[in-house]
Hints:
The complex is a heterodimer of chains A (112) and B (116).
Chain A: E1 3-5, E2 10-14, E3 19-21, E4 24-26, E5 33-39, E6 46-52, E7 60-61, E8 64-69, E9 74-79, E10 88-95, E11 100-102, E12 106-111
Parallel strand pairs in A: 2-12
Antiparallel strand pairs in A: 1-4, 3-9, 5-6, 5-10, 7-8, 8-9, 10-11, 10-12
Chain B: E1 4-7, E2 10-13, E3 19-25, E4 30-38, E5 44-51, E6 57-58, E7 67-73, E8 76-81, E9 90-98, E10 105-107, E11 111-115
Parallel strand pairs in B: 2-11
Antiparallel strand pairs in B: 1-3, 3-8, 4-5, 4-9, 5-6, 7-8, 9-10, 9-11
Amino acid sequence: xxxxxxxxxxxxxxxxxxxxxxxxxxxxxxxxxxxxxxxxxxxxxxxxxxxxxxxxxxxxxxxxxxxxxxxxxxxxxxxxxxxxxxxxxxxxxxxxxxxxxxxxxxxxxxxx
Amino acid sequence: xxxxxxxxxxxxxxxxxxxxxxxxxxxxxxxxxxxxxxxxxxxxxxxxxxxxxxxxxxxxxxxxxxxxxxxxxxxxxxxxxxxxxxxxxxxxxxxxxxxxxxxxxxxxxxxxxxxx
Lengths: 112, 116
């Protein structure tokens, strides 16, 4: 079965500090993409960062970066200089030719 | 960025009636659209994958006759909840896959369905 596992239901970080959200996945596909999405209370899904599985270099987007370990099937998200606006649910997901699967989510709280 | 719209954003219907939810890609063509269901404080659960011009592929446990999906064009997919019951009340989200890249996906804002 193709699955995505987020083992941290909740995480908390102090404003301006760094936090890492964990994600592991399991797929038999060789060609896939990995994503982190943010879902604020409005429930609109917002793309945070994307990683192509064929690329060894870890993706970065401003304060957001990933640690992609393909052999270990691990895809963690690091948020640097956390801001109050980063507070939301974060979902890890993978996309193959045929479907897209999401993890259970991690609720991130940012403390001022 | 690319925009996906969903209509309606909220709908309340009586038990036993049917309701249709539209998902449109406004400025790009989508070869594939996904339909998800999300319960409060839970993740998105894939219901079905919809490809333009062909039958949708449903996930195990999703009733095909209850959740009718039609992907009539590269910009429109519809989800019809037939003979709705209170347990069908949920938040439904669609996403559209950009044909130009094959992997870029854009999410609609979701539809909150309440069945009374």
